[in-house]
Every structure is written in structure tokens, then in C-alpha cells.
Write a structure and sequence with these properties.
Elements (H helix, E strand, L loop, with lengths): L5 E5 L6 H14 L7 E5 L5 H7 L5 E5 L16 H6 L4 E4 L2 H6 L4 H13 L3 E6 L3 H5 L3 H12 L9 E5 L13 H18 L2 H6 L2 E3 L5 H8 L6 E4 L6 H14 L3
Parallel strand pairs: 1-2, 1-8, 2-3, 3-4, 4-5, 5-6, 6-7
């Protein structure tokens, strides 16, 4: 089955409005509007609405980096799924390793976030991945399976879920999983999705790789049969680099 690649850029805590507009101009000027790749950019909360206006009329979608599971209430500093939709979001990232490690998010909290986001009509990019110590202890598959079991339930809509495999040891370190390492984990995740949802849902689901994805390694990574795109960190802050990664994704399926 041929899956349309999906490349998303996670800006993390970067860019003011002025900087965002400059980056957006670079994307608009460089990205082929006919490229056969789904593209999303996930800026900070403060930029969601203005960025949505900037990408209007392009094939670029907007995503958020986090969400709260309640629809409203006394939750100072939080943003609900409905607020994200109203700001123009199509996607939300949930379970990123920085949320897991720095902000101690896990288990039931992440599951509530995924369920609430799907119920509001958002598409979810759900992140999983192991630490260096866990990989060296040969626990990668156990960790990834546990994170899936904690964050997802079989009654969720798999057509609006993307899994992003992001080995923690490769995020922002300059280290990258080899294509063989990435393919091994992606194939394991797809097998888990066959059991979790159904064989057809697993074949249709896109599984992104994230972890120091750059123009120089994107083609090799996305040439793997079970790697369906990328969740990009630092490289998405440079328009030409991000476009190069998107182009590599298109080439992986002949687009």
C-alpha cells in the first residue's frame, strides 16, 4: 500500500511573529504547491492564529505542540482542543519526549489528551521513543509498546492518528538512528497497530521518524518501507532545509 508522506515541523519554543512571517515567506517561495506530501507546521501557541492566516491558500496545515484534555475551566495557562480548532489547527502533537521528560506527562494524562483532541476533530501526532539507556539495555520495543498501550485505546479512530517514533537519544543531539534502526522500530509499531486496530488500519497509518532529521539523511530514512515522513525539529526552522526534507519525502514515493 502506498501511503502519502507526512512531514511536520515542530518549532518548539522558537520564533516571534516577525521571525515567523519571514520563515513562512521562505516556505511559500520555495515549496512546490503540487508536492505530493502532507505538510504541517507546529508553532508556539502565540503564533497559531496569525500563522494560520499566513498559510491560508497554501497546502501547509497548522498544528499545536500541546493541548489540555478539558474543554474549558480553571486551568491557568492551558489550551483546550476547541481553542486549537478555533485558532485554525488541524493537528496536535501529544506525548513528545520533552513533554514526557521535562513536564512528567505520561499514561492516563496523555490518553485523555489524545481522546479529547480526536473528539474535537483534531488529528493527533502521538510520539513514542526510548532513551539511550533504554536502547543500550535492549528495551526499545518494550518501551515503545508500553507508551502505545498507555496513550492509545482500540476504540480511537486510527485514520486520524499518526505515530511519530522519536528516539530520545537522537532529538537535538545530532545523532540519528540509522535507516536500519528506524525501519526496525517502525515495522514493530506497524505490527502493534495491526493487533491494536486492524491490519487495514495499520497499513493505512502513517508512522513518522523524528530525531535530528536533516536534508542529508532524510532520503535514506524515508526510503525505508515503514517510514512515512518525518517530525522535524531544528531543521524546520530553516526554510530551505525544511523544503529539502519535504522534497525527499516526495521522492520516496515517486511524488
Amino acid at each position: 500500500m502506498s501511503r502519502r508522506p507526512f512531514v511536520a515541523g515542530n518549532w518548539k519554543m522558537h520564533n516571534t511573529l516577525v521571525e515567523a512571517r519571514e520563515l513562512m515567506k521562505g516556505l511559500r517561495d520555495s515549496l512546490d504547491p503540487e508536492v505530493a506530501v502532507d505538510v504541517a507546521v507546529c508553532p508556539p501557541f502565540t503564533l497559531l492564529y496569525p500563522f494560520g492566516r499566513e498559510v491560508d491558500g497554501t497546502n501547509i496545515k497548522v498544528g499545536a505542540q500541546n493541548v489540555h484534555f478539558e474543554p474549558q475551566g480553571a486551568f491557568t495557562g492551558e489550551i483546550s482542543p476547541g481553542m486549537l480548532k478555533a485558532a485554525g489547527c488541524d493537528y496536535v502533537i501529544i506525548g513528545h519526549s520533552e513533554r514526557r521528560t521535562i513536564f512528567a506527562e505520561k499514561g492516563d494524562l496523555l490518553r485523555k489528551k489524545v481522546a479529547a483532541s480526536l473528539a474535537e476533530g483534531l488529528e493527533v501526532i502521538f510520539c513514542v521513543g526510548e532513551s539511550l539507556a533504554e536502547r543500550e539495555a535492549s528495551e526499545t520495543m518494550h518501551v515503545v509498546e508500553r507508551q502505545i498501550d498507555e496513550g492509545l485505546t482500540p476504540d480511537m479512530d486510527p485514520s486520524r492518528l499518526t505515530i511519530a517514533y522519536e528516539p530520545v537519544w537522537a532529538i537535538g543531539t545530532g545523532r540519528t538512528a540509522s535507516p536500519e534502526q528506524a525501519q526496525e522500530v517502525h515495522a514493530f509499531i506497524r505490527g502493534k497497530m495491526r493487533q491494536f486496530f486492524s491490519p487495514s488500519a495499520a497499513e493505512a497509518m502513517r508512522i513518522q521518524y523524528g530525531g535530528s532529521v536533516k536534508p542529508g539523511n532524510a532520503a535514506a530514512l524515508m526510503g525505508c518501507p515503514d517510514v512515512d515522513g518525518a517530525l522535524v525539529g531544528g531543521a524546520c526552522l530553516v526554510a530551505d532545509d525544511f523544503v529539502s526534507i519535504i522534497t525527499a519525502a516526495a521522492a520516496s514515493v515517486g511524488g
